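Question:
When you can, review this sequence-structure pair and walk me through the tokens.
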Amino acid sequence: MHTENTFFGKMGRILAIDFGAKRTGLAVSDPLHLIAGALDTVATVGLMTYLKRYLATNDVELIVVGKPLRMDGEPSESFGLIEPFVARLRREFPELEVVYFDERFTSVLAHKAMLDGGMSKMRRRDKAVVDRISATIILQDFMESRAYDEMKKKR
């Protein structure tokens, strides 16, 4: 079910998850892994059901989960909620690679993006919008980091 591209070969999308106790932001890449786009914000209690439905109908090859870290690089307290979710994700979808990616500052960057984009004050208060934008930032940063690593390998 991979997307076929004669130049780049087979590529599925990358799904990013900004996991939260109440709500979870989701973002997805284009098939070539160049652009991240906001997908949805889902109530965390219904997240696994949503993911099962989404993954059954979309070609995803990798899931990136935001890893909340403190300034010293150690996992924050909220990581304790994420670990069991990721373990379940890996059990439910053993064919998919699931990786963590540093999510420090994504909420700050999301708020800045909303301000810079001229979003209304009322819309900026919508935490679901912040969650989707945070997931998009996690995914875009992940893809840029991976592209940079690939570039360094070729030197």
The radius of gyration is 16 Å. Residues 1-8 have pLDDT under 50 and may be disordered. The first strand starts at residue 13 and ends at 18.
